[in-house]
Amino acid sequence: MALRRADRAAAGRLHRPRRPESQGEPPARADVLGWARGRGGTMFHVNHEPGAEIHHTDPFAVPTGQRSPVRRLRGRLAAPVTLWTAPGPAGLTVSSTLVAEGEPDRLLGLIDPESDLWAAVEESGRFAVTPLGPPHRQLADRFAGLFPAPGGLFATGAWNETPYGPVPADAGGWAGCRLDTAREYGWGLLVEATIEAVDLAEEATPLLHYRGRYHELPA
């Protein structure tokens, strides 16, 4: 069952503490991809793409000795890049997805509690999770708010409609989930759900996120 906004307020999520700005920490959704804060507070993406980078390194990056050790540790944990979508539609790029086998099978993930995705999931009580591959780099950036989306996030590309939300037509598979509960966890929202449907069309190479950049498994 979707959580009511009144329940979230009672749990204190509507009054969650702000992420420290003094250490150059980006917004919660930046947990997914590489961001940096320039002078004046401007956020910009530092995911290096061939032919697209100006600097080999981020000129405004916080010096290594001043960075949070936990943030540096997290950056060294390679994570699969997934797209979460929900009826509405709404979507968000997420790199904290975990599947737990059992009876029933479960799925967990950390998302931005202020995202449009969470509002849609809370309203509908369900969502779809799609593992992304190397061809989806631009799509991942778009749903992370790092790439322009004229006409809306779902305006480009081919999509298959499902009861859990739209999924990319060229994805290797997706899972349909029913929301069980969610709670504040660190700077994000820990979402727990039951997997109700799995559609695996074909074996696909995963897109990984590691130390602020996209990577793919060697051939």
Task: Describe the fold and architecture.
- The chain is α+β, with helices and mostly antiparallel strands and 219 residues long.
- It has four helices and 14 strands.
- The protein has helices at residues 5-10, 69-75, 116-124, 137-143; strands spanning 35-37, 43-45, 79-80, 82-86, 90-94, 98-100, 106-111, 126-131, 159-160, 167-168, 173-185, 188-200, 207-210, 213-216.
- The chain has a seven-stranded antiparallel sheet with strand order 5-4-8-11-12-7-6, sandwiched between helices. Strands 3-13-14 form a three-stranded antiparallel sheet, with no helix packed on it. The protein has a two-stranded antiparallel ribbon with strand order 1-2.
- It is globular.
- Mean pLDDT is 78; it is low at 1-18 and 20-56.
Note the main attributes of this structure:
219 residues; alpha+beta; seven-stranded antiparallel beta sheet; three-stranded antiparallel beta sheet; 13% helix; globular; disordered N terminus
Strand content: 25-35%
SSE order, as H and E?
A: HEEHEEEEEHEHEEEEEE
Question: Helices and strands: which structural class?
Answer: alpha+beta
Largest sheet: 7 strands, antiparallel
Major sheet strand order: 5-4-8-11-12-7-6
Helical residue percent band: 10-25%
H/I helix tally: 4
Q: What's the average pLDDT?
A: 78
What is the molecular shape? globular
Distance between the termini: 42 Å
Rg from C-alpha positions?
Answer: 17 Å
